[in-house]
Design goal:
The chain has two domains: 2-71 and 92-166 and 254-342, FAD/NAD(P)-binding domain (3-Layer(bba) Sandwich), CATH 3.50.50.60; 168-252, D-Amino Acid Oxidase, Chain A, domain 2 (2-Layer Sandwich), CATH 3.30.9.10. Helix content is 31%, strand content 34%. It is built from nine helices and 16 strands. Strands 1, 2, 6, 7, 8, 9, 15 and 16 form an eight-stranded mixed β-sheet that branches. An eight-stranded mixed β-sheet has the order 3-5-4-11-12-13-10-14.
């Protein structure tokens, strides 16, 4: 029997587990992948994410988690008319595998029990606890007073509990050797509808040129990607000598209304699976902040699931407001990025 079981050892799960363990709760953190786990992600930490790490973990991100160029100077958006919007802001370039593993190590240092290669198959609320079926080679049962689901968009627990099929955006990106006439210290986001069905992007990690597109229709990935590469060759003098690897990932469709699913009873959603995600797929800061609030709600209202949910919802009101302002910002740069129009 655990006080809380956390599903998913990303930034959201590690923050929730670490904070509750520090308060003396018995915490189990399960991760379906082998640690250090890999996730397809830009790995750009915005200033807010860096500040939250220092606040929740009490120290700066180590150089072992970073990649070159370590310093990120901000984001550059190119709207549907080709106009450039430059947002200068301190940031950091990390490999998610190293960054997430460091967070998990800090959680373990606080007493969190971590089991990797372990999948949460199902959760069932029984009286004053939750019974969880875990799988690591074979199925077995554990119980906890609460479950915090931080497994992200690909998780199955929420789909089973709510009997829904989430709407996804598919991301596709490639790592390449070559050259381009752009500053590697910035993350570039292209909002032109001819280059993707959501956005296209460019950034650099350890001298790899990374190009990506996001689509609703998976069959259109190749077409949009080729158009984007052609665009970069024409406008930014791109030369690719070799493609090193390619990868696909999923992220949820988040609309401007920023709908949040807080959970059911003693099973609570946090991070991306709950809907905490900023435009362009930046989910690290929103995920960590939501984790902090759910941990605080459980600590203050442990004996009442109803009060936990109410406190969690109230404490994330400002976070939702921040997310909505971010959506309005992007919406103002490109009419074609209006999420409500894309998904009609």
């Amino acid at each position: 029997m655990y006080d809380v079981m956390v599903i998913g050892a990303g930034p959201t799960g590690c923050v929730a587990a670490k904070i509750l363990a520090e308060k003396g709760y018995k915490i189990l953190l399960v991760e379906k992948c082998k640690m250090p786990r890999y996730k397809s992600c830009s790995g750009i930490l915005i200033k807010k994410s860096m500040e939250l790490v220092e606040c929740y973990f009490g120290e700066c991100i180590p150089s072992s988690a970073t990649c070159s160029p370590t310093e990120n100077k901000g984001m550059i958006f190119i709207d549907d008319k080709g106009k450039e919007y430059r947002f200068e802001q301190e940031g950091m370039n990390v490999w998610r595998s190293s960054f997430d593993n460091w967070l998990a190590t800090k959680a373990a240092d606080c007493g969190v029990e971590i089991r990797d290669c372990t999948m949460a198959v199902s959760c069932e609320e029984i009286e004053d606890r939750v019974r969880i079926t875990l799988r690591n080679g074979e199925n077995y049962l554990v119980e906890a007073k609460y479950v915090i689901d931080c497994e992200g968009v690909t998780g199955s627990i929420k789909r089973k509990l709510l009997n829904i099929t989430p709407a996804y955006i598919t991301t596709y990106q490639t790592f390449n050797e070559g050259s381009i006439d752009l500053d590697s210290h910035y993350f570039y986001a292209y909002l032109q509808p001819g280059l993707s069905e959501y956005d296209a992007w460019f950034n650099v990690k350890d001298n790899f040129l990374i190009f990506g597109v996001a689509v609703q229709d998976v069959s259109q990935i190749g077409d949009y990607y080729n158009k984007f590469i052609s665009h970069m060759k024409t406008h930014n003098n791109l030369h690719i000598s070799r493609q090193v690897k390619e990868e696909k990932w999923l992220m949820p469709r988040i609309g401007q209304e920023c709908k949040i699913d807080y959970g059911i009873g003693r099973i609570i959603f946090a991070g991306e699976i709950a809907g905490f995600l900023n435009p362009m797929g930046e989910g690290i800061s929103a995920g960590m902040e939501s984790a902090y609030h759910v941990a605080g709600a459980i600590e203050s209202c442990f004996d009442s699931p109803e009060r936990v949910r109410a406190r969690y919802e109230a404490d994330t009101k400002d976070l939702r407001g921040y997310m909505k302002r971010q959506w309005d910002l992007v919406d103002g740069m490109a009419e074609t990025f209006k999420i409500r129009r894309l998904y009609e």
